[in-house]
Records
---
Amino acid sequence: MPEIIENFYSPIPKSVAHHYVKALSAPTLSNNIRGCSVVYGDMARLPLKVKTFIEESVVLCKPDKIHIVDGSEAENKLMLKALKEAGAIIPLPKYDNCWLARTNPADVARVESKTFICTENREEAICTPKAGVQGSLGNWISPKDYDDAIMKRFPGCMKGRTMFVVPFSMGPVGSPLSKIGVEITDSQYVVCSMKIMARMGAAVMDEILNKNVEFVKCLHSVGTPENGKIDVESWPCDPERVIILHKPALSEIVSYGSGYGGNSLLGKKCFALRIGSTIAQREGWLAEHMLILGVTCPNGTKKYIAAAFPSACGKTNLAMMTPTLPGYKIECVGDDIAWMKFDSHGQLRAINPENGFFGVAPGTSYETNPNAMATIVKDTLFTNVAMTSDGGVFWEGLEDTLDKDTKITDWLGNPWGLGVSKTPAAHPNSRFCSPAEHCPIIDPCWEDSEGVPISAILFGGRRPQGVPLVFESRNWEHGVFIGSAMRSETTAAAEFKGKMIMNDPFAMRPFFGYNFGNYLKHWLSMENRCTELGGNMPKIFHVNWFRKDQNGQFMWPGFGENSRVLDWISNRIDGVDCFEETPIGLIPSEGSLRIENLKSQINMKELFSIPKDFWLKEVADIQTYFDNQVGSDLPKEIQAQLNDLKTRVEKM
Ligand code: OXD
Ligand code: MN
């Protein structure tokens, strides 16, 4: 690491001059950070609150140097060069400014079991599970244990390293819906990724300075194992002692030991969802794990839809879909997170707080998501994908793109042969990190500071059995119940092994910043808020692209064909009478889901069947889940919805 820094800092070319950049001579700092020099940026120009945060972090982490990130292109180039020279990233000459990082193989996913919310009382953060049951709706840590966890890991953790200070905005800089953070990190990979994933740099620091806005304090260190031995020089981390801490009362995030994605790019899951959901509850809006897309119908009308699916269930594919139905156009506002607030007319409006896509690579291809493929060939930082001998990338799903002479190196850096190697070429949770503005179908309003108007909310997951392609909720309360009862097959985005059906309410299970029962109450309260403002609530739907037949084959082709489902949803938003009541909600009436010109025959009857036995069991499973996990925190309205569903299913 020190080597990287030497290469990086001597000398800083003139072209980097910026109003935050000072000459290499260290400015005089307050006593408690004497000995640690500011090698890039000017402490004197920083807002006092930022300075204090830096000083506290310096005292704790004892870095050798401080770099105040300005977000300029020149700075980014230098960072990438330094990372390359240290062997931390490999250039991918087949594309334009694209790079590959390989992590320590022990640091490849979010670590939910080591992620904690800190509040005075446990009940503020998490539900009280039934006696003897392990809670699955987040982990609580007491203020004392929080401090202890920090003091066990952070003192001196940046010795020999540079501390980077990254001011960033979640949402367009200056939008009334945006929020600001400052991430302090000792990872250049994180700085380069943050440049893609968030608006960051001098403009954000100016915003803090000029408007005196509060910011979320994010402290991150990749750490060093207790024995002092870093296993993979190019990817320092401390997998044994990873911990991700959130203290909503102080708007504070502290993350140690991992350089990977959601563990280290603290604007994403930690801020935009966990801390974000607590701010949203306080301020009366919603911070959700949702994509946002615009759909234009053949008659030219446009609607925006937000959709919550658990990690790695195709959010990016839906957000960038190429519709097969003629005359339809999809445009992408965001693929992972939505911040939604009612405007003064009671219209729900959403922004994508992010600036880029941190998408799961395997399965992304010219067939499944050509728009993502077009996005990732420029300014992209790949992590843990395989590499081709012509300087490109490869992962499971791209087999058709290979010609016979291309050699592949797998994500671990070993030679890999298609049809020969028994292990995957790319890690199942390997990622591309690309600027959203490079997406060919990015929505023209994606950066509008007032957000886009949301007409419908979709919930969904991987449900191989029993759950129809689409159904609509009977009303808002029923819709909130549907979100609370969401279940899905597990994926590789977190540390789980093997496939099982897991409850993932609102696709937020790993991301709640406060007690899920209170979160449900907050969602229920949205209806009053909207009515008081004179608006209409968005409609709520459940979709399932993943139902399988008796032979284990998917019953619905998915991807671009999902435009047929969006067409039906759009008609329902317009109030078209094209539905049939069922015990679980409203499904398309016969003939109302357009299935003309589908490549394969669809068994519509089976695709929309609602097997009584399955749903009786589903109701029982949901009840057990609520009893075990939510207990007395469950709002009575949600229990009443489950009771009503049970009665309707029993009568089938
Ligand atoms: C993600 C996730 O990275 O949900 O978006 O895990
Ligand atoms: Mn996600």
---
Amino acid sequence: MELCEYTAHELSKKLRKKEVSAKEVLDSVFRRIEKVEGKVHAYISLMRETAYEQANEADLRLSKGESTELTGIPIALKDICCTKGFPTTCGSRILERFIPPYDATVIEKLRAAGAIFVGKANMDEFAMGSSTETSYFGITANPWNLERIPGGSSGGSAAAVAAHECIGAIGSDTGGSIRQPAALCGVVGLKPTYGRVSRFGLIAFASSLDQIGPITKDVEDCAIFMNHLAGYDPRESTSVPEPVPDYRDFLNREIKGWTVGVPKEYFIEGIDPEVEEIVRRAISTLEGVGARIEEISLPHTPFCVATYYIIAPAEASSNLARYDGVKYGYRSPDGRDLLEMYRKTRAQGFGDEVKRRIIIGTYVLSAGYYEAYYKKASQVRALIRRDFDLAFEKCDVILTPTTPTAAFKLGEKREDPIQMYLSDIFTISANLAGIPGIAVPGGFTKEGLPVGIQFLGNHFQEGKLLQIAHAFEREARIEKRRPDL
Ligand code: GLN
């Protein structure tokens, strides 16, 4: 087994025992990248030079015994997180040459922990998409089948973890963008509670929905990452000063006597029978370790997708107004006056999906339509949130599929935005309600594609999600496979 194939917790032990050096781990990751990146295309840019500097520092820290569990661990960063002095494109032409003057809070925290940044991972443009096909920098393939999508929008992050082109990764999730690609690439992805992880330095898509979270090889690594990502940030007004537990304390605990809610609205027509079978199997596994399964109802579920596709574009149209070719980013060279420069910059700088969202968002916020669309969607959002509040009065966690199907083919939904939007049908509700959700591998289809199980928890109950996800991972004993690249 190559070093790049280990988990962060396994490598951390080896690093601390001086069995390997951070440099050797990084060498292994870059060897892997040389071998498979041509096929997968998980990265927009690599940070090789600074990564080796970080590896030297990590080895020094390790030799002095001043390490954390992330010291010397090579990770991928979704290219939506600002990295000081290093290009941050958000998958868009409009930010092709943007070099942030500061680090996002999560980047600062990971640096301080001694993690090593391998590169900036590919993503749908401005995180709008479910397949990583809208990036200005090309598409990413699913490591389990190169003709399939890796999911999105954090498809580069999930593919890099699955292909062992890094040990763990950072993603962002506005409507499923951590959990959906994690599920489709057979890895673990956690979207924390809104306010749990600072969004300072995360390029904004829909500010009331966006959250940063980890994508990892297993649940234990996910807990380790959360220990370093979570916490209050005075620079971010929606970050919450709630104490951060040690998430590792939730591992290896029993879930006997827990009530696991299974919402009937999540087993709809259109869900692939193989996916449903894997989810049903997960339910029996949990019953086998003493969980009580209860069918529940989240009655406003059918409105989630429509509600999201009003609120997210509305916020996006406002957030993306800043890209006008003046302060930073791409500027069209051929505008004759200011107005024409604005128009051409935005026409040339944004791709089709981003333009579609800006048009929808501007429409639903415009005078005369605001009440009918944006206001109505905000009211429905409150009802969706209340469904969860009521459910968590009687359940510890909720179990659902992560996606209705396994990874679809590249190009299959590219021309059909509605079909693309429907691939987030099970993940969007958590963002609307602000609650945390985790995707964990549940098994493989006959064709060998991974399928994910999703657990949803009440606000700030990431610990409970990790506890049940870890119990499931232990008990389900999903066969260990590696993508054949
Ligand atoms: N696929 C959804 C969208 O296109 C969610 C994206 C996300 O979570 N960033 O908006």
